[in-house]
Specification:
This protein has 351 residues and is of the alpha/beta class. It contains 8 helices and 12 strands.
């Protein structure tokens, strides 16, 4: 668009060349020209004003967007801080309430019918193998598992140790205090601690650690295959242990291998037990199986395991329900049922 200020000069030259010098006609055309120029100037002014307004609005919009973004970030930070403060306050309140509840229960010697579902859940978790005790190697695989419930408690389960531990103690009856005993994989049991307390010189092999101390107790924090234990013992105990060898279930052991159990028994026979020493072994018994946690031994695998040993005593017990076990045989059975355990004492073969 031409500059409106140039139009008067151009219009004047055109009029002179077209109409000559007639004064009336020239004045009329000049008046029309002035009207046109005025309208053009108004139009230019409107355009300039609109452009300026648009620029200002764009700038304001940009500033607004930037401000909105900054405000959103600030709000998010405030919300996070408020959420953290609320969580801290809630935890503090719950801790206070919990301590007050426990304090009140101790003071009032609360009866079990005052236990709510939340407290029952906490007690079950706290005493489980996944609870805080396990993180400190203080969880014990006790034969009887108590299950807490709302306003109640009951025997939740009884595992195979209800028969295994007495079998071990019975099998050691002929050994006098001062005998040298090796307990392999005893980390979740008080057996080694009990034997030390009874006067036996007891070594517990447990890579994950053993929480008890006693003058008669020594703990080896290495896997059996490491060679950390280098002496011969009057008795070697494998209480629900051999089935885990080579499976990779327990940390600190060797690389998984399916014949690690056979190799462990060979090592015990050739390097760790006295010629007249006694092996005490308990393990799951039934249709042969290997899973992510353990083996289940049938007769064929059990005979391979005990190659080079003379078996003295055999006991087979079977789970009859979730809270009961029964001794069913004093010899190996042809077709052991699932849910059974075999308990054996043996000595190194003289042949």
């Amino acid at each position: 668009m031409p500059d409106p200020r140039e139009i008067p000069r151009r219009a004047k030259a055109v009029v002179k060349s077209t109409v000559g010098v007639h004064p009336d006609l020239f004045d009329l055309i000049h008046a029309i020209k002035n009207e046109i120029v005025g309208r053009l100037e108004l139009l230019q002014g409107d355009l300039d004003s609109t452009a300026t307004s648009l620029s200002e609005e764009v700038a304001i919009a940009g500033m607004a967007a930037h401000s909105a973004e900054a405000l959103a970030r600030a709000n998010q930070a405030e919300m996070r801080a408020a959420r953290d403060e609320l969580a801290f306050a809630r935890a503090s309140i719950e801790d206070l309430l919990g301590r007050n509840t426990l304090s009140r229960m101790r003071k009032e010697r609360a009866q079990i019918d005052q236990f709510d579902e939340q407290l029952a859940f906490f007690l079950n978790y706290a005493h489980s193998h996944e609870g805080p005790l396990a993180a400190r190697n203080l969880w014990l695989n006790n034969p009887v598992v108590v299950e807490w419930q709302e306003r109640n408690a009951r025997v939740g389960a009884v595992n195979e140790r209800i028969v295994e531990v007495p079998f071990v103690m019975q099998s050691l009856g002929a050994l006098a205090p001062g005998a040298n005993i090796l307990d392999i994989g005893g980390g979740e049991s008080t057996l080694g601690f009990s034997l030390a307390s009874l006067g036996y010189l007891t070594t517990v092999v447990e890579p994950q650690g053993y929480p008890f101390t006693h003058p008669n107790l020594r703990v080896s924090l290495q896997a059996l295959e490491s060679g950390d234990v280098d002496e011969r013992f009057d008795a070697v105990i494998l209480l629900s242990t051999i089935e885990h060898f080579g499976i990779g279930h327990y940390a600190g052991g060797p690389e998984p291998t399916m014949d690690a159990d056979l190799e462990a028994l060979r090592l015990i026979r050739t390097r760790l037990i006295k010629d007249e020493g006694i092996l005490i072994l308990t393990t799951p018994y039934g249709p042969a199986e290997v899973n992510d946690v353990e083996r289940i031994y049938d007769n064929e695998r059990l005979h391979r395991l005990l190659a080079g040993w003379d078996i003295d005593v055999v006991r087979v017990a079977q789970r009859t329900n979730s809270t009961s076990w029964t001794l069913i045989s004093d010899h190996l059975v042809d077709e052991p049922a699932s849910g059974s355990v075999v308990m054996v004492t043996a000595r190194p073969s003289s042949t």
